[in-house]
Amino acid sequence: MAKSLSARIAERVARKKPAGNVRNRAAFLALRGEVKQAIEDGCERIDADGW
């Protein structure tokens, strides 16, 4: 028997990888305290190799 629409959607969502912007947002939110402190300390940007 064919799967229901709900079951097919649930399977697709489970297989789908999060979009790049979601991963970037998660990484930013994880570091937001450090980012805030860096801005308060006068850093204007982050270089590719670190602070």
Descriptors:
51 residues, mainly alpha, rod-shaped
The largest sheet is: none
Give the ordered list of helices and strands: HH
Overall mean pLDDT stands at 80
- Percentage beta strand: under 5%
Q: How many β-strand stretches? A: 0
- Overall 3D geometry? rod-shaped
The tally of domains stands at 1
Question: Spans of 5+ residues with little confidence (pLDDT < 50)?
Answer: none
Whole-number radius of gyration? 19 Å
- Distance linking N and C termini: 57 Å
> In terms of structural class, how would the helical and strand content be classed?
mainly alpha
Q: Helix amount, in percent? A: 55-70%
Task: Count the DSSP helices.
Answer: 2
Structure description:
The protein has 51 residues and is an all-alpha fold. The protein has one domain (5-40). It has helices at 5-15, 20-40.
Layout of strands and helices, then pairs:
Elements: H1 5-15, H2 20-40
Entry summary:
This protein has about 50 residues and is mostly helical. The protein has one domain. The chain contains 2 helices and no strands.
